Amino acid sequence: MYLNLTYEMDNKKMGRYYNDMLEDMRKANLQDARVKQRESANKMIWVTFKKEGIHKYPAALEDPKLATGGWDDVSFLGYPHRHIFHFRVWIEVFHDDRDIEFIQFKRWLERLYSGEGANTTSSTKGSEEQSSTNSQVLVLDYKSCEMISDELFEQIADRYPGRTIRIEVSEDGENGSDTTYNYERV
User: Fold this and answer.
1) 3-class SS at 130?
2) Which distant-in-sequence residues (6+ apart) come within 8 Å of 56 by Cβ?
3) Cβ within 8 Å of residue 163, ≥6 positions away
4) What distance in Å separates the CA atoms of residue 158 and residue 155, rounded to the nearest whole number?
5) pTM greater than 0.70
6) 167, β-bridge pairs
7) Bridge partner list, 128
8) What is the pLDDT of residues 75-132, one digit of tens each?
9) Which of 28, 44, 69, 72 is most buried when burial is the number of CB atoms within 10 A of its CB?
10) What is the side-by-side order of every strand in the sheet holding 43-55?
11) Does residue 58 register a pLDDT over 60?
């Protein structure tokens, strides 16, 4: 009887010991997995900005799928019309300590659409000219949100090569495009 009781107690101790060891191993594996997950994360920063622009969709005037004459008629898009274009731009970063400083990145993006080099027109308010940051209106001709995104991608990729980039462009924050330009590492 005494021997049997000792055997049962030893089995219980051994069972707890193995259970504790298994739990410790499970916790260590979870921690290792978390470290690997963090180290292999695809880190991106994002910025937003807005820009007034004028564009048109010439096909909307004559394409029967667009100029329907009914509730879904969008032929008005064939004429130049104004939007506030909303941009959200993500760019891959390779470490977590300001690889690309996002305020500088945002300012650089805004400068692409104002002043010299941008396809803009200046507007005036009364006889006073507004500041160049606010008064520049993008002249986008026939460009869709997707086309605007593609052009912006080229500018960003020239300055920051070898990175995944995602660009969202919307008209008035309502409707737009979202394009991810994945960089494939070889």
Assistant:
1) coil
2) 77, 78, 79, 80, 81, 141, 142
3) 91, 92, 93, 157, 183
4) 5
5) yes
6) 89, 179
7) 125
8) 999 999 999 999 999 999 999 899 999 999 999 999 999 865 566 655 444 333 333 3
9) 44
10) 120-122, 136-141, 43-55, 81-93, 165-171, 175-181
11) yes
